[in-house]
Amino acid sequence: MRARILAMSLLLCLCWTAQALAEAKTAYTIGPEDVLAISVWKDEALTREVVVRPDGKISFPLIGDINVQGRSVEDVRAEIQGRIGEFVPGSPVSVMAIQIKSPKIYIVGKVGRPGMYIMFERMTVMQALALAGGFTPFSSTGDILILRLAEGKQQTMTFDYDAVAKGKHLEQNILLNKGDTIVVP
Question: pLDDT, tens digit, for every residue of 118-133?
Fold first, then answer.
């Protein structure tokens, strides 16, 4: 009976997580350290890989610096196409994100593998903790903190793994944002 209740609780948690992830699907936005491949059709001199600088900009021949941080690949392609059209009229431009390195979260404290993790998709706290290899024997799983910088201010949220694992307080299993830090005491 107890195993059945636990299984139902975990199933409910997984369903809620899947629904939250489906609602959160949005276009990928470019961030610092991402690598973009940009090419102008039939122009070898205007084909290169560029790394997004910490200030969120890239440099490209003829058109100089472009702010790409927080923008979609298609949006950046359209801007480059418009700006490069003054110099190379009618040439299609291609932009591809070939290395994604910017949407990072950090997991510190008493977990199996603390460190920095790249979020290839939006993820919840439970998913991030699983990525970090779970807990060590001395972890305080009921006192986990999530640190988030929002609008220049540090926010702290609590997360009780024990409660969420039992199917209680599922609202604590939030979707993480870029830059969030999970602290497991």
Answer: 988 889 999 999 999 9
